[in-house]
Amino acid sequence: MSQFQHLTLSQGAHEIVLLRIDVKDSPTNILSLAVLKEINEAVGGIRDQGFKGLVISSAKPNHFIQGADTATLLSLKTPQAVDAYINLGSQVCRRIAELPFPTVALIEGSCLNSGWDIALSCQRRVASYEATVNYDYFQQGYYSGFGGITRLITRIGLRDTLRFLSKGEQTAEQLKALSLVDHRTPSYQTQAVIDQFFQHLRESENTTPYVAKTHRSNSLIPRHLLLLALKKQDACLAKSPSEQQACASIIDTWSEYNISEDAYLAETKSAIKLLQSPLTQYHLKLTQLKQRLNAGTKRLDGGINRVHIIGCGSMGRYIARLCAQNGFIVTLYDTRNSALEKLLPELNQYFTQQNIAQTERQRITDNINLSPENYSLPHADIVIEATPEVCLAKASLLKDIESSAKDTALLLTSTSCFPLEELSKNMQTPSRLALFNPYNPCFKSDLVEVSTTGGNQHLATIQSFAKSLSLTPAKVKSATGYLGTRLMMVFLTESMLIHQARNSIISIDKQALKMGMCHAPFELIDEIGITECLRIAEALADRRGIDVPNILIQKHEQGLVGKRSGSGFYRYKNGVKQDGLLNNKLTTSTNKIKVSVTEQRLIEKIINEARACLKEGIVEDEDILDLVATMTTGFPMQHGGPLNYLKALKAANKTLTK
Amino acid sequence: MPLPPQQPVYLVDGTRTPFDRRLRRDSSGGNAYTAQDLLHIAARDLLSRQPFDSTKIDNVIMASSQTLDCSSLAEDAARRLRCTNALTPQTFSGNEGVGIQALSYAYQAITSQGKSLVLLGGVEVVNAPLISASDELSEWFQVWKNASSISAKTKVFNTLHTSYFRQRAMPSDTPNERYTRHQSQAEAAANQSQISLDAQAEYVNLSQRRLKYAQRNNTLCNIVPVYYLDGSSRSSDENVITLDPESLKQALQTNPEATGLVTQNSVAQATEGACCLLLASQAFIDEYNITPLAQLFSPNTSACTDAIEASLNKHDLTSEEIDYWEWDEASAAEILALKQKPLFKSLSSFDRINLDGGCLATGNPFAAGQLRNILQLSHTLQRNKGEYGVCHFGFNSQNISTILLRNAIGDTAGRDT
C-alpha cells in the first residue's frame, strides 16, 4: 500500500484495512487540509480493492481525531479557501460512508469536532471507557459541515442532536446511552472487540454495509410537530448568541431538507456561511488569543499543593472549587460559619449541573477542608486573600498573612479594584503580593487577571498557578480597578446615570440587549451584588474621580443586596428573575430614551475607557483589551471589542454620532 | 522520677467531629455521611494543621466497633488522604474495645516496627438500613393502595420520587443501643458498691454541667465542624441529656427500670462521631521540630480489676502523682464504684477526673470516644500544666485498659502537687 505522511494504511487479519491516523509533528491529530487530502486519497484507493472492512484509529495516545484547530480555520482567509476546505471534509466523510464494506471507528481518548464527523461517517463506533467526545464548534457558533450533523439527526433525531451539541464534553457511557457508540470496552479489549465483530461478520458471511435505523422524529408528521415545538424552545436549548446562531442554522436546514441527500449539501453550505460570520470569527480569534496567552506557561510543580483561601464569599468558594478540581488540597477559612455552610450546597448544585460522576464528586469534596480556624495558614504553599473589597481591612489582613505564612508561600489577593501598592503598604516585603482575580463567577470565563510588582520570575509562577487551574492568565498593570472592573464599572455607572436622567430601567436593559450587548446592565448589577458594586464604585470614585450614582446608594440604604437575596433592581425567586421591578416608585420612569442615544452613550464610554486603559499601559495588548471589554461589559461580540470597532469605524470613515 | 527506658511515642495532634446522635443526618439531594466520610473529615482537618503532608504517614490504623461496611476503613482513609501506596493500613472492628486495641497496635508500630508517623482513627455510626421506608414512602404506598383503577394507580405511580428511598440516619428517639448493652453491667456495679440513685443523679449532673462549662469556655479542643448539603452544620457536641438538673434527678428517682437502680440517663448513650490522632516517634518530632501534645506510655490492658494499679506500678508512680484522670463514663454507677476503690482515697472529689465532662453528657461513639478521651486529657494536662494523666477504659472485668500520658511541653510549673 502507498505511503502517506500523516497516516498509515495496512492490511490486518480477515482482509480488513487498518487506517491509523498519525499527523506528523503534532501531538494530536489535527485535520488540516493536507491531512484531509491524504485521508481522501487513502479512502478512495481502498474502495474497489475487495476488502472486507475498514478500521479507522489513531496512533496518538489518548486522542482520536481533534478536528481542525483554530489556526487552521483562521488561515482560511478567503471564501474560496473556506469553501475548498469544508467541501473536502464533506467529501472525505461521504466517501467513508459510501464504502461498500463495514467500517468501524475506534475511539480511544478524546475526539473533537470534525473528528467526531469522521467517526459518525463510519457505520460502527467502538469506544474505550476513557473516550470523550466534545463538539465545541457549536458553542462557538458554527459546525464543521462534514455531514456529521445530518448523520446525528438521522440517528437520534433533531431534539437530541441539539441537546448533544450544547452539552459539551460527553463520556463513552453517555454516548452508549444515546446509541452513538456500539461498543464500550476497556482500552485493552478494544482490539479484541473489533476482531470479534469482523469474525462474526465473516462467519455469518455478511459483508454488506450496516445501515443505521432512522430516528422516528424524521418522518413527516412528527417532524412538523417537533419543528413547531422547537421554534418555541430553541432559545432555551441555545445558551448564548453564538449557540443560537448555530442552532437556528441547523433547524432551518433540517426543516427544509430533513435527512435527504440534499441535507448534506445544505449542511456544507450553511457551515461555509457560518464560518465566515463575524461572531464565529470573533470566537476563533478569542480562542487563538487564549492559546497565545497560555503559550509557554507550564503547570505548577515542585510539591506545591496546599492552598489556603481566606474568605468564603462567592470568589473564595469559586477558587476553592477550581483548586480542588485540579488536585490541590484546599483549606477554606472564614470566621463566619454561615459563609462556610454555603459551599457544599453550591458545590452540589454545580455537580448536578455539570453531571459530574460520583467518584469525581467525592474526589473534589475530599480536597476541600472548611475551617472556621486559621490553623492551615502557616503550612500553605499558596495563600489567597478573597475577602470583601474594603481596602484597610485587606491591607491589615495581608500584613498578618505575611507574618504567619511560610517564607516561600505565594501570597495572592483577589481584589478587583485596589492597586497592589496600596494593599501591600503594611507588608515587610510588598513585592511578595500578587493579583489573582478570576473573572468568574461574575462572567462565565476562564480568564484571570494577574499582576505583580515582584519581577518576571514571580509573574511566571503566578501564571503557572493559573494554568494549573485551567485558567488563562492575562497580565495587567497594578492600578485602581485594573482592567475588567474599570471597564465594567464605566458601563454600569453610565447605565445608572442614564436612568437617573429619568429613563426606565427596563427600557435601558432591553435597549442594551437589543444593540447586541451580552449583559443587561441592571441585571448585571443584581448579579454582582449591590453592596459589592457600591464598594467598587466608591473605591473607583475616590481614586479616579468618578461619580457614584445615587440610585446605587439608595438601593444599598434600602438594604437590598441583589439576586442572592431575591431583591435588587429586580425581584428574584429561587434565582430566577421575576417580571417587574422591585420598587416602581424609585426606579421607573415614564420617559423612554431612544435606542440610538443609549447605544451612543454606552459604546462611547466603553471605547473611551478602553483607549484610556491602553494609553495608561494597564494592558499592553489591544486584543486582550478587546477580549476583556467584550466579556465584562458585554460589548457586542460581532464588533470584536471596542478598539476593533473603533478601527472599523475609522476604516469606514464613520463616527459613533448618529 | 526515672521512667523505664523505651522508644518514646508522642501524640502530635488530634481532631474529632462533634458527637451527635444524628451526625450523619440526611441532607437534601444527597445521602447521609458514611463512617468513612466522618473519618475523612476529621483526618483531613488534622493533616491541614501539620507542617507535613499525608505522604509522610507510615501507617493508617482505624477502628470501629461495628463490622458492617467498616472492614476497609483504613484502606479507604489512606486512599482518600492520598497516602503513599506502600502503606499496609489496618482496620480493627468487632468489639467495644477496638479504640484501645488500635492504639496499642499503633504504639507497637512505632516502638517495634520502626514506623515514624501513624494516623490513628476511630469512628462509630449508628447502624441504619441502606434503604428505609420514609414517611413519604409510607404515605405514597397508602395512596397507591387506595387507588382503585389502573389509571389512578398510574397517576399515583408517577408521583413516586427517588428521594423517598434516601438513606436515612437513625432518628434520635429510637431505643438506646448502649443502654441495653450496659444496663446489667451498671446494675451489677451499683449493687456491688451500693451506689444510690441520688449519687448517680448527682454525677450525671456533674458531667452535664462540666460539658456545658467546657462548651461555653471553648475548652473542648480541635472539634472539626461537619457541614451538610442542605447548608447547615454541626460544630459542637450534642448535649444528649435534655433534662435540667432538677428534672433529671426526679426522672432518675421516679422512673427506675425493672431493677430499680439504673436508668437510660445514667448510662452513656450511643452517638455518632469520629476522632483521629497522629502518633509519632522521637526522630519524627525532631525532624519537623514539632511540639507534641503529650508523650504516651505503653497501654496496659488487664483482665483483672487493678489495671490502674498495675499501670502505675509499672511506671513507678502513685495515684497521688497523677494530676488528671479521664475515665470512660460508661455509666454513672461504674464511675462511682471505681471512685470508691482504696487507690483513690486521696481523691476527695471529682476535681481531677473528667474535667470537661464525659460520655454521659456527650454520648459515646465507642472507638472515637476512647481516642477523644486521650486527646482531651492531653489538652487538660497542657491547660492546667499537669505532668501525668491516666486514661481508663472499660469497666467490664474482661477488658480493662489504661494508658499513661505525660505532658510533652515540659512546663508544669503550675502543677498542683
From TrEMBL, chain A:
<dbReference type="GO" id="GO:0006635">
    <property type="term" value="P:fatty acid beta-oxidation"/>
</dbReference>
<dbReference type="InterPro" id="IPR029045">
    <property type="entry name" value="ClpP/crotonase-like_dom_sf"/>
</dbReference>
<feature type="domain" description="3-hydroxyacyl-CoA dehydrogenase C-terminal">
    <location>
        <begin position="481"/>
        <end position="572"/>
    </location>
</feature>
<dbReference type="GO" id="GO:0070403">
    <property type="term" value="F:NAD+ binding"/>
</dbReference>
<dbReference type="Pfam" id="PF00378">
    <property type="entry name" value="ECH_1"/>
</dbReference>
<dbReference type="InterPro" id="IPR006176">
    <property type="entry name" value="3-OHacyl-CoA_DH_NAD-bd"/>
</dbReference>
<comment type="pathway">
    <text>Lipid metabolism; fatty acid beta-oxidation.</text>
</comment>
<dbReference type="InterPro" id="IPR001753">
    <property type="entry name" value="Enoyl-CoA_hydra/iso"/>
</dbReference>
<keyword id="KW-0511">Multifunctional enzyme</keyword>
<keyword id="KW-0520">NAD</keyword>
<dbReference type="GO" id="GO:0004300">
    <property type="term" value="F:enoyl-CoA hydratase activity"/>
</dbReference>
<dbReference type="InterPro" id="IPR050136">
    <property type="entry name" value="FA_oxidation_alpha_subunit"/>
</dbReference>
<dbReference type="InterPro" id="IPR036291">
    <property type="entry name" value="NAD(P)-bd_dom_sf"/>
</dbReference>
<keyword id="KW-0456">Lyase</keyword>
<keyword id="KW-0276">Fatty acid metabolism</keyword>
<dbReference type="InterPro" id="IPR006108">
    <property type="entry name" value="3HC_DH_C"/>
</dbReference>
<dbReference type="Pfam" id="PF02737">
    <property type="entry name" value="3HCDH_N"/>
</dbReference>
<comment type="similarity">
    <text>In the central section; belongs to the 3-hydroxyacyl-CoA dehydrogenase family.</text>
</comment>
<feature type="domain" description="3-hydroxyacyl-CoA dehydrogenase NAD binding">
    <location>
        <begin position="307"/>
        <end position="477"/>
    </location>
</feature>
<keyword id="KW-0560">Oxidoreductase</keyword>
<dbReference type="GO" id="GO:0016509">
    <property type="term" value="F:long-chain (3S)-3-hydroxyacyl-CoA dehydrogenase (NAD+) activity"/>
</dbReference>
<protein>
    <submittedName>
        <fullName>Uncharacterized protein</fullName>
    </submittedName>
</protein>
From TrEMBL, chain B:
<feature type="domain" description="Thiolase C-terminal">
    <location>
        <begin position="304"/>
        <end position="392"/>
    </location>
</feature>
<dbReference type="Pfam" id="PF02803">
    <property type="entry name" value="Thiolase_C"/>
</dbReference>
<dbReference type="InterPro" id="IPR020617">
    <property type="entry name" value="Thiolase_C"/>
</dbReference>
<dbReference type="GO" id="GO:0003988">
    <property type="term" value="F:acetyl-CoA C-acyltransferase activity"/>
</dbReference>
<keyword id="KW-0012">Acyltransferase</keyword>
<dbReference type="InterPro" id="IPR016039">
    <property type="entry name" value="Thiolase-like"/>
</dbReference>
<dbReference type="Pfam" id="PF00108">
    <property type="entry name" value="Thiolase_N"/>
</dbReference>
<dbReference type="InterPro" id="IPR020616">
    <property type="entry name" value="Thiolase_N"/>
</dbReference>
<protein>
    <recommendedName>
        <fullName>Acetyl-CoA acetyltransferase</fullName>
    </recommendedName>
</protein>
<dbReference type="InterPro" id="IPR002155">
    <property type="entry name" value="Thiolase"/>
</dbReference>
<feature type="domain" description="Thiolase N-terminal">
    <location>
        <begin position="9"/>
        <end position="282"/>
    </location>
</feature>
<keyword id="KW-0808">Transferase</keyword>
<comment type="similarity">
    <text>Belongs to the thiolase-like superfamily. Thiolase family.</text>
</comment>
